[in-house]
């Protein structure tokens, strides 16, 4: 039996609300303003019939919470605000989790409202009241029903001592309609006005959240239909808006409006030419180094030319002055030059020429690269079949391709039924095959449908999808334009693991009763494993938009996750672990909160935006889109060491990396059309990478 000890008043630990939280937390309202507040109302325990009550009618910070006969007094009158707070007495006193605890049991108290995630709550239609930060349920201790029984937080279990009756928020599970007619005006080099038509909602729209390409820019109140945005000269962005109500329900996203701001000033002065270019070979890998160029405004990139053809680009502010060229032929001489570019693509003269001769054999981690195939759509999921051939899907075209990597021959296996894209990242996503595929023929697929994201399995017979065999294993995973996750991976335990995005609502990531912003774990038949930590599919939580999953030789699960605007992260996943989103992005925000699991490695989003990962001989390979590179890191204990960068700009944006049967890698590009849902508007490559020892 679990017990809560209670003393009054409790002492709260010191608390801080970092400025960074406002940048990554979707619910942002002014402290002390109960916007769109609902109440006051009682909150009555379903099992006891008694009211949620501040002990002793105390107004002292740290006073505890219990159940007591309903008596109409102020200590039982609760107000639910648009920020998700439960306030009592006045607009300055909130129901609060003591010490920001995120593991059961956790104590609750009253405390001055401060906007912390430990003071935000979700009132669900099933009568549960869930802490947004912890994902734990408001719980009457030991299922007690008598006056004075202490109330705290406990793992959600569906029992009556965790269900409450109240008029606060519980009836609203309906999201607002999609904001219509998004449009821009007044575009300058550094600003634009973004406008849209009002959404409708059964209760009322509380906020609008404005994004570009999946990245939150700002939130405004529900009465605002136009706002000024700061933009970057020359950067092409896709703007859109979501509506959100006071209960935290988020609409689907508006249509996308594409903008490319002009430069703030004309610049016709090119950078100076890079100088002192040198090169050295280690086996079939060449490392180049040079002295930085100068520019009247600033150098933004270096283009690397091999034998007169552009083979890579180094970016950054300022960009690095080194480049690794991998996968070259043995015993061959190559000539290299480097060109500098500024923000307006003024190009310098070429550097001096350096000639480098490779060695007799590959002596590095990455050896040769061979183009296996091209495609007019985006290859997203990819698996190797027992015979060494490959299945991959096309995200926007919604079909599956069987590829012979030796000959390059391709066969369309079939179109997956009930797939609908999202004008963003949704569509046909992850693939996995069963351990017994040679006999049972099950192909596992994660995809977006018209109503949700889901995991299905379909048999492949005679090189065709037998759609009549389709089984929907998991449904009801919320979808949106971006943040749909989508990777599938079978673990050494025989369970299927899936990564899900937060559907552009960070609250879901901390709600352990929801499936969004999670790593899920299920049996191959779609049932919930008995040893999952929370009694549902959730294996870990607090994720924003994870798209990479891979297991190492110890059977440990690694995960790759998109950040918002600051950091991407690679995580070592633990059973029941909380990885901090939306309070924590990488190591930014309130990441020192007890219970949050720190990332194994972080990357600036400009150098990362990484999607797929693969592990070969306990080296982690990471495919990055915006960063247009592949990282390699050696797994050492729980750390990633000896991190190296390959293919920096050589092939552009990289989406998926998977182990190949010969000990190498499959690698796919995602350069065109990867932020829309238009089929066959790409020109992508599927590559085979031979790895060294």
How can the largest sheet be summarized? Answer: 4 strands, antiparallel
CATH-assigned fold name of the largest domain: Neuraminidase
The gyration radius over C-alpha positions equals 27 Å
Helix content, binned percent: under 10%
Query: What is the number of independent domains?
Result: 4
CATH class designation of the largest domain: Mainly Beta
Q: Looking across the biggest beta sheet, what order are the strands in?
A: 7-8-12-11
Distance between the termini: 54 Å
Q: Structural class from helices and strands?
A: mainly beta
At CATH's second level, what is the architecture of the largest domain? 6 Propeller
The number of helices is 3
CATH fourth-tier homologous superfamily of the largest domain: TolB, C-terminal domain
Summarize model confidence as the mean pLDDT.
90
Strand content: 35-45%
Overall form: globular
Provide the low-confidence segments as ranges.
1-36
The total count of strands amounts to: 53
